[in-house]
Amino acid sequence: MKPLICAHKGRVYNEITKQTKLAKNKDTLQKTKYLDISSISVIIDWLNSLQLSKKYINEQNIYEELQNGHLILKLIQLYNPQVEIKGIFPKAMKKKCAIQNLEKALSIIYGNNPYYYSMVSSLDIYEQKKKKIHILLIQLFSKFEFAILTRIATPLLNWYNQTLRKFQVPLHSETLSNPFDVTPRVHYKEKAHLRGDDSPNEEEHKSGETKWKDCILKSFASYVLFKDKTEEADNYTPHIVKDFSDCIKIFLIFYRYGYITQEQFRHANILDIRNKYFFLRNLLKKLNIPIVLQNQYFNNPCEVAILLQLKFIQFFIRNEGYEKAIDLDGEHFFFSDLFRQKKREST
Hints:
The protein is an all-alpha fold and 347 residues long. It has helices at 9-17, 21-31, 41-50, 62-66, 70-79, 95-110, 114-117, 122-126, 130-166, 173-177, 186-189, 202-216, 220-233, 239-244, 248-256, 262-269, 273-286, 303-319, 335-346. The relative contact order is 0.10.
């Protein structure tokens, strides 16, 4: 970068800050405002699975549900119980009270970071500005769940695979090596400045693909932008979807640990896909396991939704005392205990 004269110090500062990690992350988030709410529907399913609202959240009422800030504060308390939040207005019927709730929530989420804090304001949320709220939802999911999923996906799937191999139905190798399905396609390799498959340096090619995955998985914003493009480009079905979309391998896990009988498993195996999902949801509800996989996944399963559901199931089994249900990272699973406690209080 060429040095500029003193009269343009402000421009120098702006040019430098444009290159920082925070500024680049902000640019990525800004691009997500052009996405339709259906592109991030998994976030709505995630919120519903936690049962933080008395209403069933959908693509139409989510903006109203977030308006007074109480739902966001409950989400923060669920994932960060160590954070003490005083002066919450549960109903917040007046604008002043709602804004106060929202300001408290945003100050915790953004940590007063100017790069992020300026993106979505309390007034944006209160006035139900959809594009701004989409950015907030992406940040919330990325902060509380996606960052965890990217770290635990491999050991989580390896745990499932150990059991499934005993039934001679192991997971695809691609499911284990690339659960989020971010292997660069031909039309993306050139853009990422990676060498093609005919590269003479195989190690360099593998290193390039690793860097590609790290770049895409650094946040939910970058991932959802990538997936939105790939869905337009082809009709490729990820291997993790092929493995779990019919629910059979999930039923095998429940059968292995004694939550369904052999007769129930055989019955589930012959059901059509709609009734398989119905059976799975009833089982999850009976066991007080958060339900992520909803009806819309009959024909269009989502990798992130599948991984999130698998995580909730795995933690339930581990929490029941089974030694082979590995402790992926205890600090990331505490909320399930709170979830169960809430369920008991409501009954």
